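hey can u check if this looks right to u? its 152 residues, i copy pasted from the old doc so theres a chance i mangled smth
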Amino acid sequence: MSPQSLFHLYAIRLLEYALFGVVPSDMAVVREMTVTIGRRDRPEPDLAVVRRDSVGGARQTTFRPEDVVLAVEVVSPDSEQRDREVKPRKYAGAGFPHYWRVENEQGELAVHVFEREDTTGTYVPMGIHRKQLALDLPFPIEIDLTDPQRWL
């Protein structure tokens, strides 16, 4: 595992807590859980929103690709290529409908939002959100990306 920055930690915390507050009751937020895509392909998104009926209890160690509604990766200096190129291809190929890539723009969060286009099986960009993340999909959400109290 690569060394993580405080930005990485705080960005995950901010988004995780915000997602807890808005995720629909038929979904759950999980952190750094394995998704088994293939026998040797088992990525661990920083955050994921999964279907609640796929949550099997305290001993569960993995989810199936069809369980994942949203995958979130916070880019770190050691993970730039994986988070920007490799993981989006894997996640889209596995059928994850939504992907967020979080970038550090001079200490501020920039959330790049992608949606999977079923015809091509690839992600298409839906926007870059700074200061405020307001979306209707995969469920209604509003997150203040500038609130430093949410980071601590």
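The chain has a mean pLDDT of 91.
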